[in-house]
Write a structure and sequence with these properties.
With 257 residues, the protein is an alpha/beta fold.
Length: 257
């Protein structure tokens, strides 16, 4: 309700998708559902904390009971931390891994058997360019997105021939409330580029329609991700130059809080 999902939901609804919206905040989910009521889609909202096994199971069961199965599961939830790793809060590190890695993997585990049984389906994991390029001061977040990229690749190979596909979609920074103010300030100073959430949502829908295995959104970051996979030392040289400025931003952020 507060990030890419807010733009992605109406685009899917306008294509007559039946949507089950999961959010920790029932009011947020209901508000988004109300905004979508003019669309031709059927909308179901479920209040759920996806880090809780009982909430995950309840959400999957609600969808299955309502519609008889699940065709597409889109993992969008995420937590970010921008700080030097030696100063990172241990609790935040744990939370990042729970929300960004364990919870989506467990949701996939719940949804997958019925997809395999029906012989069709698609898992859509929304990653990040930081899942291909390890970025200073985003160590825990980068690690979580590297994990989701590896999970998506391994699962895709495991499911070959089953009729169930796996998409890993990697945006660069997106102009949503998900990013702390310091990220927006860095973008204003030209230290990173940010995309409009509506454009990112369009690209996600397109990737789903085309059944893409992977999609990297944004240039030149998409190119850097591929270079980093082959010649990481070239990318090292470019990123290391930014480290002093990044550390300065973390210090400003700490003082601001």
């Amino acid at each position: 309700g507060g990030g890419i999902g807010q733009e992605l939901s109406p685009q899917l609804a306008n294509r007559k998708a039946r949507l089950c919206l999961l959010d920790r905040d029932q009011e947020t989910g209901d508000r988004l559902a109300h905004e979508l009521k003019k669309s031709p889609a059927e909308i179901l909202t479920v209040q759920a904390d996806i880090t809780r096994s009982e909430d995950r199971e309840r959400a999957i069961n609600r969808m299955t009971q309502a519609w008889g199965g699940i065709d597409i599961l889109i993992n969008l939830a995420g937590v970010m931390d921008f700080t030097r790793f030696d100063e990172a809060d241990p609790g935040i590190i744990q939370r990042i891994l729970q929300v960004n890695v364990e919870a989506p993997m467990q949701l996939v585990r719940y949804a997958l058997p019925s997809m395999i049984e029906q012989g069709r389906g698609r898992i859509v994991n929304i990653g990040s360019m930081f899942g291909s390029i390890g970025f200073p001061c985003f160590a825990a977040y980068s690690a979580s997105k590297f994990a989701m990229r590896g999970f998506s690749q391994a699962l895709r190979r495991e499911l070959a021939g089953s009729g169930v596909g796996v998409s890993y979609i990697s945006p660069r920074a997106v102009k949503t409330r998900f990013n702390p103010p310091v990220i927006h300030r860095m973008a204003e100073l030209g230290m990173m580029r940010m995309d409009e959430p509506q454009w990112v949502a369009q690209k996600i829908v397109r990737a789903i329609e085309k059944e893409k295995d992977e999609a990297y959104l944004g240039f030149p970051e998409g190119l850097f991700a591929r270079i980093n996979a082959i010649l990481p030392r070239l990318v090292d040289a470019a990123i290391v130059k930014q480290v002093p400025a990044l550390i300065a931003f973390t210090e400003r952020g700490r003082k601001a809080t």
